[in-house]
TrEMBL record, chain A:
PANTHER family: GALACTOSYLGALACTOSYLXYLOSYLPROTEIN 3-BETA-GLUCURONOSYLTRANSFERASE, GALACTOSYLGALACTOSYLXYLOSYLPROTEIN 3-BETA-GLUCURONOSYLTRANSFERASE BETA-1,3-GLUCURONYLTRANSFERASE. It comes from Pelusios castaneus. Glycans are attached at N250. The keyword Transmembrane helix applies. It is an enzyme of class 2 (transferase). Pathway: Protein modification; protein glycosylation. GO terms for biological process: carbohydrate metabolic process; chondroitin sulfate proteoglycan biosynthetic process. This is Galactosylgalactosylxylosylprotein 3-beta-glucuronosyltransferase. Its cofactor is Mn(2+). Belongs to the glycosyltransferase 43 family.
Automatic annotation (TrEMBL), chain B:
It is found in: Endomembrane system; Golgi apparatus membrane. The lineage of its organism: Eukaryota, Metazoa, Chordata, Craniata, Vertebrata. This is Galactosylgalactosylxylosylprotein 3-beta-glucuronosyltransferase. Glycans are attached at N291. Mn(2+) binds at D187. One of its GO terms (cellular component) is Golgi membrane. It catalyses: 3-O-(beta-D-galactosyl-(1->3)-beta-D-galactosyl-(1->4)-beta-D-xylosyl)-L-seryl-[protein] + UDP-alpha-D-glucuronate = 3-O-(beta-D-GlcA-(1->3)-beta-D-Gal-(1->3)-beta-D-Gal-(1->4)-beta-D-Xyl)-L-seryl-[protein] + UDP + H(+). Its main location: membrane. Its cofactor is Mn(2+). Pathway: Protein modification; protein glycosylation.
Length: 281, 326
């Protein structure tokens, strides 16, 4: 059963095949999509990574860089990555206490995943020669979002930095770049702090490998970053607004959703745990 | 002995000429190279064999892309029944589970909307999904419907929709067709391996479900390959204390018991039992997932997205473009 979908009358094609849990064969000519996913241990982690893997198995030439917020690489993530069948790199770096996602009910306002994303960038810069960069793009995919297959084909040929709308970001149905009739990004259709240099969610942009390698000092900043400015802290060292490439039919289609998974109610585990800890969940 | 340079040159010249003449005389002479030829020929044969092996592998893979192979056509079809309803995260949920379902051979998705009509969103999504599907709809009667902010446990959900799917199967499938029915809610998370476990169901099979019932997991207790009880902390005295995601039913069993369905009036937590008790006894349950010791499905739930800014904008008549589908 083979179905091709041409999007918006231009190049990117999405092929939906019965894949049977193996990725499409690696192509020597297709640009590689490096997906950097920070992750941390909590009850829904395995579920999130499982469904992400099921999605990524459909994308050709995808390399998954999973970075655990942990002092050691955990068995859960190691085993999952080995069995998934994807091309992957497994890294880890522990966030200092103040930045860690805590067990409390109050969500942390500190930016999360920063150290982990930066480690992913560091690995890329270590692994590839900036004089002969591979064709490809870097995308920061958090483990609880939802990604359409079309999105990956939109980002694949990014020359510098490409952008698109993200559903459920910033308290809106979707946040989106504003694109002029000439096809240039001229502003941000957002309500939350529209004066951010790049009023865009982590899931709303991708950067070409070449640019990442050309600007080794460009990283996400840790200190003094207000909520919502994480993305700007990286992008300001990479590109200016008029250098952005709008995708998704000039930013009129939603191809990625900022979903969040509920914290499961585990009250019946009680204080000392009830279920067998040897069973991995 | 003193070696004069001139002599060195002369000797060099003579040796070269002799060598050259010898080589010229050898040209065209038959030689015994049979050993080399044989090993080169063997090498070529083995490479040829490898090439034809690879070619047939390529053909096989190409054929796979075209449709089921003969042995796949014999695989029982898995019918996944997914009730769904319009809300902000609906499209995202359906997109991501469809991405999982694309990995399952002989899969048939029955999507039942809680709606008086088939919505464009779901129709288009199904058409583009690449999956074999049936698109149904039925609206939950008002008195059984949730209101906007009702907690999820208040009334059983998806009952009419699942029952409609069962009715469709009974009207459109024969007893002779092998299949297994699984109730796959649109917000759970399914591993690919789960479907191998589902596929072998003879009557009703069961397995653990993660993150449900207030526990890390609930699961049937298995001794000597039989289910002898259930590990659960919530209402353990239910006839079948299993979650909707924790069992599958052979199609033939449902076709042979045409009255078996979910009870709209079932007490909270008893929905699964209302179906299963007319189909099977506990002793007959088939444990899967390594005697119910592996978690292959999780009862994840998705947060309702915060729409504070959207609501503010809409009050000012500046809400987001409704023609952009989310």
């Amino acid at each position: 059963h083979h179905k091709k979908m041409i999007t918006s009358g231009v190049a990117p094609k999405v092929i939906q095949n019965y894949v049977y849990s193996r990725p499409p064969p690696w192509s020597e000519t297709l640009p590689t999509i490096f997906v950097i996913t920070p992750t941390y241990t909590r009850p829904v982690q395995k579920a999130e990574l499982t469904r992400l893997a099921n999605t990524f198995l459909h994308v050709q030439n995808l390399h998954w860089v999973v970075v655990e917020d942990s002092p050691r690489r955990t068995n859960l993530v190691s085993n999952l990555l080995e069995k998934a069948g994807l091309n992957f790199t497994h890294l880890n770096v522990e966030s200092p206490q103040s930045l860690r996602v805590g067990g409390s009910w109050i969500p942390s306002h500190k930016p999360r995943g920063t150290l982990q994303r930066n480690l992913g960038l560091h690995w890329l810069r270590d692994s590839f020669n900036s004089t002969q960069p591979p064709e490809g793009v870097v995308y920061f995919a958090d483990d609880d979002n939802t990604y359409s297959l079309e999105l990956f084909e939109e980002m694949r040929y990014t020359r510098r930095v490409s952008v698109w709308p993200v559903a459920f970001a910033g308290g809106l149905r979707y946040e989106s770049p504003v694109v002029s009739p000439a096809g240039k990004v001229v502003g941000w259709k957002v309500v939350f702090d529209p004066n951010r240099p790049f009023a865009i969610d982590m899931a709303g942009f991708a950067v070409s490998i070449r640019l990442i390698l050309e600007r080794p000092q460009a990283t996400f900043k840790l200190e003094g970053i207000k909520g919502g400015y994480q993305e700007s802290s990286l992008l300001k060292d990479l590109v200016t607004m008029d250098g952005l490439e709008p995708k998704a039919a000039n930013c009129t289609k939603v191809l990625v959703w900022h979903t969040k998974t509920e914290r499961p109610m585990l009250a019946n585990e009680g204080k000392h745990g009830f279920s067998d800890l040897r069973m991995e969940v | 002995m003193k070696v004069k340079l001139k002599n060195v040159f002369v000797i060099y010249f003579l040796v070269s000429v002799i060598g050259l003449m010898y080589a010229l005389l050898q040209l065209g002479q038959p030689c015994d190279c049979s050993q080399h030829l044989r090993s080169a020929s063997d090498l070529m044969h083995s490479k040829d064999k490898k090439i034809s092996q690879l070619l047939s592998e390529v053909k096989r893979l190409q054929a796979r892309g075209k449709g089921p192979e003969p042995e796949e056509q014999a695989l029982p079809i898995i019918y996944a029944i997914t009730p769904t309803y319009t809300r902000l995260v609906q499209k995202a949920e359906l997109v991501r589970i469809s991405q999982t379902f694309l990995h399952v051979k002989n899969f048939h998705w029955i999507v039942v909307e809680d709606s008086p009509v088939k919505t464009q969103l779901v129709s288009e999504l199904l058409a583009q999904s690449g999956l074999r599907f049936t698109h149904l709809h039925t609206e939950t009667p008002k008195e059984h419907k949730h209101k906007e902010n009702d907690p999820s446990w208040l009334k059983p959900r998806g009952v009419e929709q699942r029952n409609l799917a069962l009715q469709w199967l009974r009207e459109n499938r024969e007893l002779s067709e092998e299949g297994v029915v699984y109730f796959a809610d649109d917000d759970n998370t399914y591993s690919i391996r789960l479907f191998d476990e589902i596929r072998s169901t003879k009557r009703v099979s069961v397995w653990p479900v993660g993150l449900v019932g207030g526990l890390r997991f609930e699961r049937p207790l298995v001794e000597n390959g039989r289910v002898v009880g259930f590990y659960t902390a919530w209402k353990p005295n239910r006839p079948f204390p299993v979650d909707m995601a924790g069992f599958a039913v052979a199609l033939q069993l449902l076709l042979a018991n045409r009255e078996a369905r979910f009870d709209l009036l079932a007490e909270r937590g008893y929905l699964e039992s209302s179906l299963l008790q007319s189909l099977v006894s506990i002793e007959e349950l088939e444990p899967r997932a390594d005697n119910c010791t592996k978690v292959l499905v999780w009862h994840t739930r998705t947060e309702k997205p915060k729409m504070k800014q959207e609501e503010l904008l809409q009050k000012q008549g500046l809400g987001s473009d409704p023609s952009i589908e989310v």
